[in-house]
Design a protein that fits this description.
Elements: H1 2-9, H2 15-25, H3 30-42, H4 46-59, H5 64-77, H6 80-93, H7 98-110, H8 114-127, H9 132-144, H10 148-161, H11 166-169
Length: about 170
């Protein structure tokens, strides 16, 4: 599974094949199912993303990541009932679900919905002002939108919280 993460990070198209090998060994591995859902979501294969997120939840109903991926898929496809279910479930597991909104923001960015992404990332930061991931997503998206001062401030806060985070250090 770790190799699939590396391949995805390096932009290789082999990540999905590698994660499928992990799932052949353990078809109930929630993290691998969620990662597969994310890969399908990124390639706009929404039905497959939804299926893998649901399989991840069948394996681990307490996976906020899987609820976030199901919510992101529903959000991008306009399925408001499933989105509300995913948001409610994530909130029950984590009363301040910053990770949920950060995942939605990242999915929106990949679909070039930058205004939505900015609003979602701001919600994530409001729920957890110390979330390095949420601050980074917010800052990077604000830079995309030309909000240079705000974006730089968010990235500087993230960098202050974790100076060794490569994503923030190199921005």
């Amino acid at each position: 599974m770790g190799l699939a993460f590396v391949e995805d990070f390096e932009g290789k198209s082999t990540a999905l094949t590698t994660i499928r090998r992990s799932l052949a060994i353990n078809p109930q591995l929630s993290e691998a199912l969620a990662f597969s859902a994310r890969l399908h979501l990124e390639s706009e294969q929404y039905d497959s993303a939804r299926l893998y997120a649901q399989r991840a939840l069948s394996s681990d109903t307490a996976s906020v990541q899987a609820w976030a991926l199901l919510g992101a898929t529903a959000f991008l496809t306009g399925d408001s009932a499933t989105f509300r279910l995913a948001r409610s479930s994530a909130t029950q597991l984590q009363p301040r679900p910053s990770e949920f909104y950060t995942e939605l923001a990242e999915a929106s960015i990949r679909q070039r919905r930058y205004a939505n992404a900015s609003n979602l990332a701001q919600q994530a930061v409001a729920l957890d002002p110390t979330s390095i991931h949420a601050l980074t997503v917010l800052g990077m998206n604000q830079l995309r939108l030309g909000q240079m001062v705000e974006g730089q401030a968010a990235l500087e806060r993230a960098f202050t919280l974790d100076a060794s985070n490569a994503r923030n250090k190199n921005t």
